[in-house]
């Protein structure tokens, strides 16, 4: 089984807080539980579970969870790591020609075949060298060098053939000229002989043309001559000026095809009858129409980027946090600078444009383009932001945690933006509308907006923000910017709650976290921009 070209679309550090990243998935049979697991391999972290469901069912992870280890989301069981290492040691590498492009083929037992450009293969070598797999890195680089050599040889061979091809073209052109010269000479001689045998009326027509008579007079004189006496070669050269509609006139020598006519006993056996002036006029008119007709082969204009609608919010101070959960304490005052935030979460339509451009590595299967995109990781969101920023030449980012909470309150001070109690129709969550099985997702604008005009700032889809996870607000920044660690963090803050969560989780102050590398069905995001 093949996955085609190994396209990698790293995030480009949108917002300045995220390190550029490349990730690919490997299929591995765990040597302990004998399950087939998808493992994510990145240049920024150790190999890990790709899907949270597979991680949650791992016997070794379940055992660690019983001990209360908080960092288990960032880890992979030892048995799976060993199986991955064994597969990589058995990998076969070779330089292959794929449709005229030299690639590095990596074939791993039980996994998909992968094809890298020489540059991508060297990037993979760097990743595995940082993981201590120096032998594997050396094999990647060796085959990348071989692919480069094959490319060089191909280019040199093409350059060597260029003079031969040029000479072949010259010889072919000379042969064509010699082949066609004799028939043309014969045709000209036949035409001269025919002109000498024309009746008086036709000779008068030629004389009129030579002395400046109009094309209409010439055609009138020609019409008086019997058609059986007109003998011309297969292609007729019309040197008279033919009147045609609009602005097109045939005043130069125009080669016109012969028109079929009944055979004439007076005509030469190999020569068809002459084309009439009327036929010449019709052909000239057709040529004029063809020249003036608009081209239908132009490529359709590209679909415009589905840029999310942005709302500008004024800056100000607000009280952040609550006493309802230890992670939301202590309550503190934060100053927010003016910024713009998307009116709703990013939709499936906008996301799939990024996937179609091969800038986002995940394609949503949701057929409703207006639905919020879900099952995206923090790293996926960074890929989208990098693509959108480049496509629109605007600098987008994820909102900070403080900006998100400020926007969610909508200028209010109550538990929810509409008051202190849940009200039907205000939010999509478990039990919020009298039902214990909320709809999985609703269209982004199906729920009422808050006073700032923002939709789904609570419930619906949980939303990634820029901040690294901290268990409370002790030492938090107070300027509204993202609170990030000096080094790259794996756990990022999630806001809003989702349709699966209860009313407590959809409050503006509620906060949660998740591994930024892992996709989960309730996770989406919205974007922001500094003003």
Give an overview in words.
The chain is built from eleven helices and 18 strands. By secondary structure, it is α+β, with helices and mostly antiparallel strands. The strands form six sheets. The chain has a four-stranded mixed sheet with strand order 1-7-6-5. A four-stranded mixed sheet has the order 16-15-14-17. It has a three-stranded antiparallel sheet with strand order 2-3-4. The chain is globular and about 95 Å long. Residues 1-19, 204-275 and 293-297 have low confidence and may be disordered.
Q: What descriptive keywords fit this protein?
A:
single chain, 4-stranded mixed sheet, 11 helices, globular
- Give the ordered list of helices and strands: EEEEHHHEEEHHHHEEHEEEEHHHEEEEE
Strand order, sheet with most strands = 1-7-6-5
Which structural class fits the helix and strand makeup? alpha+beta
Overall body shape: globular
Please give the largest β-sheet. 4 strands, mixed
Instruction: Output the radius of gyration.
Output: 38 Å
Poorly predicted runs: 1-19, 204-275, 293-297
Discrete helix count: 11
The tally of strands reads 18
Beta-strand fraction estimate: 15-25%
Roughly how many Å apart are the termini?
Answer: 49 Å
């Amino acid at each position: 089984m093949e996955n085609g070209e190994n396209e990698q679309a790293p995030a480009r550090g949108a917002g300045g807080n995220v390190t550029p990243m490349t990730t690919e998935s490997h299929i591995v049979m765990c040597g302990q539980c004998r399950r087939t697991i998808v493992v994510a391999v990145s240049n920024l972290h150790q190999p890990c579970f790709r899907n949270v469901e597979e991680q949650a069912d791992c016997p070794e992870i379940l055992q660690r969870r019983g001990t209360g280890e908080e960092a288990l989301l960032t880890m992979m069981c030892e048995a799976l790591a060993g199986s991955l290492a064994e597969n990589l040691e058995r990998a076969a590498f070779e330089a292959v020609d794929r449709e005229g492009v030299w690639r590095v083929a990596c074939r791993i037992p039980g996994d998909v075949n992968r094809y890298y450009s020489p540059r991508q293969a060297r990037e993979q070598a760097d990743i595995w060298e940082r993981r201590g797999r120096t032998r594997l890195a050396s094999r990647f680089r060796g085959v990348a060098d071989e692919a480069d050599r094959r490319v060089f040889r191909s280019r040199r061979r093409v350059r060597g053939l260029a003079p031969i091809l040029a000479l072949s073209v010259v010889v072919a052109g000379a042969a064509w000229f010699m082949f066609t010269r004799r028939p043309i000479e014969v045709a000209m001689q036949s035409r001269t002989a025919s002109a000498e045998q024309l009746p008086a009326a036709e000779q008068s027509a030629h004389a009129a043309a030579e002395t400046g008579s109009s094309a209409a007079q010439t055609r009138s004189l020609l019409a008086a001559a019997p058609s059986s006496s007109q003998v011309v070669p297969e292609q007729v050269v019309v040197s008279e000026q033919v009147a045609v509609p609009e602005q097109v006139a045939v005043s130069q020598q125009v080669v016109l095809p012969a028109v079929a006519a009944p055979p004439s006993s007076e005509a030469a056996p190999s020569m068809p009858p002459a084309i009439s002036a009327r036929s010449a006029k019709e052909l000239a008119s057709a040529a004029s129409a063809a020249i003036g007709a608009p081209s239908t082969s132009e490529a359709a204009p590209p679909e415009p980027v589905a840029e999310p609608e942005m709302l500008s919010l004024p800056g100000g101070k607000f009280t952040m946090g609550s006493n309802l959960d230890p992670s939301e304490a202590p309550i503190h005052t934060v100053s927010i600078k003016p910024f713009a935030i998307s009116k709703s979460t990013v939709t499936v339509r906008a996301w799939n444009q990024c996937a179609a451009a091969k800038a986002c590595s995940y394609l949503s299967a949701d057929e409703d383009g207006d639905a919020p995109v879900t099952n995206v990781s923090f790293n996926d969101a960074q890929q989208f932001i990098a693509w959108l920023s480049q496509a629109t030449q605007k600098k987008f980012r994820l909102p900070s945690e403080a900006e998100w909470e400020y926007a969610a309150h909508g200028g209010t001070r109550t538990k929810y933006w509409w008051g202190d109690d849940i009200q039907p129709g205000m939010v999509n969550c478990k039990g919020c509308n009298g039902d214990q099985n909320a709809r999985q997702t609703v269209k982004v604008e199906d729920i009422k907006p808050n006073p700032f005009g923002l939709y789904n700032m609570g419930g619906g889809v949980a939303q990634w923000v820029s901040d690294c996870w901290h268990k409370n607000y002790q030492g938090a920044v107070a300027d509204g910017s993202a609170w990030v660690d000096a080094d790259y963090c794996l756990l990022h803050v999630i806001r809003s709650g989702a349709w699966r969560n209860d009313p407590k989780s959809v409050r503006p102050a509620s906060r949660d976290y998740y591994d930024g590398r892992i996709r989960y069905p309730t996770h989406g995001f919205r974007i922001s921009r500094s003003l």
